Predict the structure.
Amino acid sequence: MRAYKDKLPFDLIDSHAHLNEMDQIDEVIQRAIESRVNRIVAVGMDMDSNIRTLQIAEVFEGVVLPAIGYHPWSIQVEKIDETLEYIKENLVGCSALGEVGLDYKIKIKKTVQQEVFQKALELACVFNKPAIVHSRYSYERTQKMVRSSGIVKAVFHWYSGPLDVLDLIIKDGHYISATPALAYSKYHQAAIAHMPMDQILAETDCPVSYKGKASEPCDLIETVRALSLIKNEPMDVICRIMAENAMRFFGF
């Protein structure tokens, strides 16, 4: 996937990366900058990753922009209160709340997931932060909870769900994000094709592997290439719009 000589035509923001899971972070950041990914929104999933994400953001201030959250995969009943309290204490200095949401393919009780998600969304409202939302196999419920929370801005990360639910997301003025999986995932392609250009963010979700290759922020060019094909627009146009969307969404 990675071709280090490739550069984006404009500076761009990777709107979703798990930098805490990556080794040799200095080199990862350098490759991103060389490819013109000049900002990276680093997301947390639990207490440990939130702490690590804030540490990385402090070291790479101005390049790494932290988001802290409580991913449904990471929920432990005995740690819910502690983790939510940590988010409450540190969210003010973050670019967003996330990653939070629902995942109905995992074994954690739906009621527990919904309780955590609801409380996290309430914090986003209190601190006026956008939310980065996970919604796998829970698209309708997640959309309803985001709508009822009153949150102003949410991005439904890697959305690959039904188009009727997507129409409600569009109506509410929220966003979905495109990943390198756009090159081959028919459900992801259908969602992105349906979505207005000004409500899409570009991301890598690194270090997720696509077609067997682990990703980095510099691989955002793969997302842009796939977007260019899906939307039938030149890459420079895609980059400009994605940069504008991210700036607007995160309030940079």
User: Anything to note?
Assistant: The chain has nine helices and ten strands. The radius of gyration is 17 Å. The mean pLDDT is 96. Residues 100 and 181 are 21 Å apart (CA to CA).
